[in-house]
Design brief:
Layout: E1 8-9, H1 23-32, E2 37-43, H2 54-69, E3 77-85, E4 105-109, H3 119-135, H4 140-156, E5 161-162, H5 173-183, E6 186-190, H6 198-204, E7 211-214, H7 227-235
Parallel strand pairs: 1-2, 2-3, 3-4, 4-5, 5-6, 6-7
This protein binds zinc ion (2 copies).
Length: 250
């Protein structure tokens, strides 16, 4: 197996949400690809279809700690994260509060399938986003409202990275990049979804923000993959030094 162009990959899914492989399967691929760290980031509990049940985070933590204990020299470190859902107007997220300290890192993203603590507003947001996805139609008001949801979450939580910014709904990527720069939150160039887009990367890069590539692997064979993300970053002319987990230049 070819060595990954990534130093590490934080964004991978397992059967605990809707991925195809186990934690150990993702870990074994990471080992073969020569990654230094591999993160498991299944969906937050509020996601109606894929959310991890709060009690399962404990099981995941134990499984991960055990694998780490048997690590050999040069083997990757296994980390437990979560892909929490951005939907609440006050910026709060579904971090399984009784377990929140048990995560090694936090990913935050906007997804359909989560209603949060203001379901009527959430429904309006999802409808507008679905329409945007189907037709490209949106308004400044909708864009600003979506951006505020993200920015409020960035300020209300310690978020390591924002997953696929701009996917699934219209956003003001410059306003989001500004907030992320201030909070030290990374913007993800997601390998699976087309976001950030080339244009999104260009706009975000005007601010003092750093980027990270995530495979968003839903199957173990996709762990550490990054060719689509790399292609977009290169096309956007992004300085490769600004991608925190890239091994060498383009
Ligand atoms: Zn996602
Ligand atoms: Zn994901």
């Amino acid at each position: 197996m070819e060595k990954s162009r990534l130093l590490y990959d934080l964004h991978t899914h397992t059967v605990y949400s809707h991925g195809k492989g186990s934690i150990r399967d993702n870990y074994e691929t990471a080992k073969k690809m020569g990654l230094s760290e591999i993160g498991i980031a299944d969906h937050g509990p509020d996601h109606a279809l894929y959310g991890v049940k709060a009690k399962d985070f404990l099981r995941m933590r134990r499984e991960i700690d055990l694998i780490n204990e048997e690590r050999g020299e040069g083997d990757p470190k296994l980390l437990l994260g979560v892909e929490a859902n951005i939907i609440n107007p006050d910026g709060s997220m579904d971090l399984a509060s009784e377990f929140a300290d048990g995560f090694d890192f936090i990913i935050a993203g906007y997804h359909f399938g989560t209603m949060g603590n203001a379901p009527i507003k959430a429904l309006g947001t999802h409808m507008a986003s679905l329409l945007y996805n189907m037709t490209g139609w949106s308004t400044e008001r909708i864009k600003n409202r979506n951006s505020s949801l993200v920015i409020n979450a960035v300020y209300a939580n310690r978020i390591t990275l924002l997953s696929h910014p701009g996917a699934k709904g219209a956003v003001d990527i410059e306003a989001i990049a500004r907030a992320c720069a201030e909070r030290g939150t990374l913007l993800e160039i997601n390998n699976k979804h087309g976001y950030l887009t080339v244009e999104g990367i260009r706009r975000a890069a005007k601010y003092d923000v750093e980027f990270i590539i995530g495979s968003d692997a839903h199957s173990p064979s996709d762990v550490g993959r990054c060719s689509s993300a790399l292609g977009r970053a290169a096309e956007a002319g992004l300085d490769p030094e600004r991608i925190v987990n890239l091994r060498g230049g383009y």
